[in-house]
Amino acid sequence: MLCPQVWASVRQGLSRGLSRNVRGWASGEGKKVDIAGIYPPVTTPFTANAEVDYGKLEENLHKLGTSPFRGAVGGVCALANVLGAQVCQLERLCLTGQWEAARKLQLRLIEPNIAVTRRFGIPGLKKAMDWFGYYGGPCRAPLQGLNPADEEVLRVDFSSNGWL
Predict the structure, then answer these.
(1) Are 118 and 141 spatial neighbours (Cβ–Cβ below 8 Å)?
(2) From residue 141, how far is each of 34, 123, 145, 151 by CA, in Å?
(3) Residue by residue, what is the 3-state secondary structure of 5-50?
């Protein structure tokens, strides 16, 4: 169990990163994207006596809060099924230290990624795969395909970021 001071630090650090303004809309205006619930993994450091090292944990959380991608070390890459080249490009940009270009690409990928994972899940991913020339196909029971209204929202998530 984390001590109250560390939890306060965690909450403060995470609350700064719960939404982002996304640029690149045709209108030129930013749109706020809710990324609440998307948290990077944080390992728990231990002392030589097998006790939680709260000082090191707090230090790690501070580093997490100041890193360019909030400490991301991996991902759920459902989006790679549709925008695989772009997801790989993001990795290459990070590996070569091109942080500004990586940040711009990351911001364009956030909404489509949320759409095919958290918002619409497998039905959204299958529909997007169909749009990009892959076989998404129909959903298997008990899942239902997207209704026309949800399909339009999904289309906006991809087209407003320049992918469709």
Answers:
(1) no
(2) 29, 11, 10, 19
(3) HHHHHHHHHHHCCCEEEECCCCCCCCEEEECCCCCCCCCCCECCCC
Angle at 37 between CA 124 and CA 39, to 5 degrees: 110
Query: What integer pLDDT is reported at residue 18 of this predicted model?
Result: 41
Percent of the chain whose pLDDT exceeds 90: 35
Using the structure block, give the residue that is written with the tokens 């944080």. Answer: 42
CA atoms within 13 A on the CB side of 78: 21
According to the model, what pLDDT value does residue 33 have? 55
Quick check: 33 and 66 in contact, CB under 8 A?
no
Whether the pTM exceeds 0.70: the reply is no
Measured between alpha carbons, how far is 41 from 52 in angstroms, rounded to an integer? Answer: 16
Digit-coded pLDDT (tens) for 80-114: 999 999 989 988 888 888 888 988 998 899 899 98
How far apart CA 41 and CA 73 sit, in angstroms, is 8
* DSSP 8-state symbol, 56: H
